[in-house]
Specification:
heterotrimer; A mainly alpha (156); B mainly alpha (233); C mainly alpha (233); A: 156 residues; mainly alpha; 6 helices; B: 233 residues; 78% helix
Chain lengths: 156, 233, 233
C-alpha cells in the first residue's frame, strides 16, 4: 500500500518537472523572439528544428496550403519526384550491370573457348601439313616406280 | 641412321595415343576438378595449355639447337633431320603459345598484345624459328648449313634474352600467388599432367616428321642411284 | 707454309686482310659514302615520321639511332660481300694458306670499321636534326656503339659469307640476322636511353653496356668456331 503511494508521488514529481521545462516563462519567450528578429540565421535554425520535430500530418497540411497558394511549387515538386525516381532506376541498372560483369569475369567462357579452339586449330593444321608431306612422298615414290618400270621395259 | 627405323615406327602410335588420352583427361580435369583462381577466375584455365605448350616449346628449341650443333660438327644428316623436325614442331607450339597467350591477355588485361618483355621474348624466339623454316625452304643447296647456324645462334642468344626479361618482368604469373611452384594441389597436378601430355604429343609429331624427312632423303638417294646406274633418265 | 718465312700470327694475318679490304674501300669509297647517305636519309625520314620537338622524339631517339645504324650496316654488309662475289675473290682468299679464323676476323674488322663510320655520321646528324643530347656522355655512347658494331659484324660476316652463293641472299640476309641481332639492338637501345635520361642513369647504362659486351664475347667465340663449318667453298 505504502509503495503505491510512493510511486504516485514520484510520478507527480516527474510530471511537474517536465511541465516546468516545457513552458518557459514569458520573459524567456520574449528574449527568444527578440533574438530571432535580430539574428536571421538563428531564426532559420529554430524553424528548421521545429520542422524536424513536427508532426508529419501537420506538415502535410501546411504543404497542401502552400501548394494551393503557389502553382510553380507544385510543378517543382513533381519534377523533384521524377528526378528521385530516375536516380533510383539508374542505381538499380548499375547494380545489375556490375552483377553481370562480375559474372562474366568469373566465367569468361568466350575467351577460354577461343584459346582452346586456337590450340586445336594449330594442332590440326600441323597434322594436315604432315599429311601433305606424306602425300608428296607417296607421289614421289609412284613417280620413281613408274620411271623404273619404264626403263626396265626398255632394257628388256 | 641414328634412331633405328623401328623407333619412329613405334613412337608415333604410342606417344600419339598417350597424348590423345592425356588431352582428354586434361580437359576433363581442367573443367571439372580444378578450382577457379582467386583473382583471374575462369580464364586462368587457359594457363594449363598455354604454359604447357611454352615448356615444350623450350624443349623443342633446345633439341633443335643441340642437334644443329651436332650436325655442324659431325655432318651427319640424321641430326639435320631431327633439327628440322624440332624446328617445325617448335613453330607450331610457338604459335599455340602466342595465340593462347594473346587470347588470355584479352581476357585478363583487355589487350590482345602488350609490349612487355616476356611477350617480346616469345615473339623473338618464334621469329627465329620462322626464319629457320624460311631458310630451309628458300636457301637452296646450303640451306641445311645456314639453318643450322641460325639455330645455334638463336639458342645461344636465349640466355641473354632471358636476362633481359628477368630485369623487368611484369608478366602475369601462373596463379594469384606467383609462379608454378606456388600452385596448390589440383592446379599443380593438372599443370604437370598437361606438360607431360604435350611432351608425348611433341614426341609423336617429331617422330612422324623425322620419318617423313628421312623418307624424302632416301627417295632422293634412290633416284640418284638409279641415275648413276643408268636405269633412270 | 714455307719454312724460311716465320709463321705470322692469326691476328696479324687478319689485320692484313682487313687492311686490304679497307684499302679497296678507300680507293672507291663506294660503300662508306652510300652507307652514310642511306643512314642520313633514314634519319631524315624518321624526323618526318615523328612530330619533332615533342617528347616522343626524345623517347624514340635511342631506338632510331640503333635502327638507322643497323639498316645502313646491312646495306654495307651486303655490298661488301657482293664485291667478293663479283670476281669470286672469297674463294681465292680461301685457297690461300691462311687459317679460316684469320679470314673471318679480317672481314669482321673491315665491316666493324664500316659500321663505325656510319655511326660517326648518323649520331651527330640525329643530335642536330632531332635535338637529342647524345654528346652528354660521349665515352659511354661510343663504347656502346662500338660494341654494337662488333657484334653486328661478327654475326653479319658469318651469315653474309655463307649466303654468298645463295640466289635469294638479299632477302635472306636480314631474315637470318635480324632476329639474332634484336637482343643486341635492345641492349644498345636501353643503354642509350639510360644515358639520355635527365639526369643520366649511369648504373643502368653500364649494366646494359656490360650485357652488350657479354653478348659480343659469346657470339664472337661462336662465330669464330662456326665460320669454318658454315663457309665451305
Amino acid at each position: 500500500m505504502r509503495s503505491r503511494v510512493w510511486i504516485v508521488v514520484a510520478a507527480l514529481a516527474m510530471f511537474s518537472a517536465r511541465a516546468h521545462a516545457e513552458t518557459p516563462g514569458p520573459d524567456a519567450r520574449a528574449a527568444c523572439v527578440a533574438a530571432m528578429n535580430v539574428d536571421k540565421a538563428f531564426a532559420t535554425d529554430v524553424v528548421m528544428n521545429a520542422t524536424k520535430q513536427a508532426d508529419p500530418a501537420v506538415l502535410r497540411r501546411t504543404c497542401d496550403v502552400a501548394l494551393g497558394l503557389d502553382a510553380k511549387y507544385a510543378a517543382d515538386l513533381a519534377e523533384h519526384a521524377a528526378d528521385l525516381e530516375s536516380a533510383n532506376r539508374r542505381l538499380a541498372a548499375d547494380a545489375k550491370q556490375h552483377e553481370t560483369a562480375s559474372d562474366a569475369i568469373a566465367k569468361n567462357e568466350r575467351h577460354v573457348i577461343i584459346a582452346y579452339a586456337a590450340m586445336w586449330l594449330v594442332a590440326v593444321g600441323f597434322l594436315l601439313f604432315l599429311r601433305q608431306r606424306q602425300l608428296g612422298l607417296r607421289r614421289e615414290i609412284a613417280l620413281l616406280r613408274r620411271d623404273l618400270e619404264a626403263s626396265l621395259k626398255e632394257n628388256a | 641412321m641414328a634412331v633405328p627405323r623401328s623407333a619412329t615406327d613405334w613412337m608415333v602410335p604410342v606417344f600419339g595415343l598417350l597424348g590423345a588420352i592425356g588431352l582428354v583427361v586434361c580437359i576433363w580435369l581442367i573443367f571439372t576438378w580444378v578450382p577457379n583462381d582467386a583473382v583471374l577466375f575462369f580464364n586462368q584455365r587457359i594457363f594449363y595449355f598455354h604454359v604447357g605448350h611454352a615448356f615444350n616449346l623450350f624443349i623443342a628449341v633446345g633439341v633443335c639447337g643441340v642437334s644443329s650443333l651436332l650436325f655442324l660438327w659431325r655432318r651427319t644428316p640424321r641430326w639435320d633431320d631431327l633439327a628440322l623436325a624440332a624446328a617445325e614442331v617448335a613453330v607450331a607450339y610457338g604459335a599455340v603459345v602466342l595465340v593462347t597467350g594473346s587470347v588470355w591477355a584479352k581476357a585478363a588485361w583487355d589487350h590482345w598484345w602488350v609490349w612487355e618483355n616476356r611477350l617480346m621474348m616469345s615473339l623473338l624466339l618464334w621469329l627465329v624459328l620462322v626464319a629457320y623454316v624460311l631458310v630451309r625452304r628458300y636457301a637452296g643447296a646450303s640451306a641445311d648449313r645456314l639453318a643450322a647456324g641460325l639455330a645455334v645462334f638463336g639458342t645461344v642468344g636465349l640466355p641473354f634474352i632471358y636476362t633481359m626479361v628477368n630485369k623487368g618482368d611484369q608478366h602475369p604469373q601462373a596463379g594469384t600467388n606467383g609462379n608454378v611452384a606456388t600452385l596448390t594441389g589440383p592446379m599443380q597436378i593438372v599443370f604437370w599432367l598437361s606438360v607431360a601430355t604435350f611432351f608425348c604429343w611433341f614426341l609423336a609429331l617429331i617422330a612422324s616428321r623425322v620419318a617423313s624427312t628421312r623418307g624424302e632423303r632416301e627417295l632422293r638417294e634412290l633416284r640418284e642411284q638409279g641415275l648413276d646406274a643408268g636405269l633412270l633418265t | 707454309m714455307p719454312a724460311e718465312r716465320p709463321r705470322q700470327g692469326v691476328l696479324r694475318q687478319a689485320w692484313r686482310i682487313a687492311w686490304k679490304d679497307l684499302k679497296v674501300e678507300l680507293r672507291s669509297r663506294e660503300i662508306v659514302y652510300t652507307m652514310a647517305f642511306f643512314g642520313a636519309v633514314i634519319v631524315v625520314v624518321y624526323s618526318f615520321a615523328f612530330p619533332s620537338s615533342s617528347a616522343l622524339v626524345r623517347l624514340g631517339a635511342p631506338g632510331l639511332l640503333w635502327v638507322s645504324t643497323m639498316f645502313a650496316g646491312t646495306i654495307g654488309l651486303g655490298r661488301a660481300f657482293d664485291r667478293e662475289r663479283e670476281n669470286d675473290t672469297l674463294r681465292a682468299l680461301m685457297l690461300t694458306p691462311v687459317p679460316r679464323l684469320a679470314i673471318f676476323l679480317g672481314k669482321g674488322i673491315a665491316i666493324t670499321f664500316l659500321v663505325g663510320a656510319v655511326a660517326l655520321v648518323v649520331t651527330p646528324l640525329m643530335a642536330l636534326l632531332m635535338d637529342v643530347p647524345f654528346f652528354d656522355h660521349p665515352g659511354e655512347l661510343a663504347l656502346a656503339l662500338l660494341l654494337g658494331a662488333v657484334g653486328f659484324s661478327a654475326i653479319g660476316t658469318v651469315f653474309a659469307a655463307t649466303l654468298l652463293k645463295v640466289r635469294s641472299r638479299d632477302v635472306l640476309l636480314p631474315v637470318i640476322i635480324y632476329p639474332i641481332l634484336i637482343p643486341l639492338f635492345a641492349f644498345g637501345t636501353e643503354a642509350t636511353a639510360a644515358l639520355l635520361k635527365v639526369p643520366a642513369d649511369l648504373d643502368n647504362a653500364w649494366y646494359w653496356i656490360g650485357l652488350l659486351g657479354a653478348y659480343d664475347a659469346a657470339f664472337l667465340v661462336l662465330s669464330m668456331w662456326i665460320f669454318e663449318s658454315l663457309v665451305i667453298e
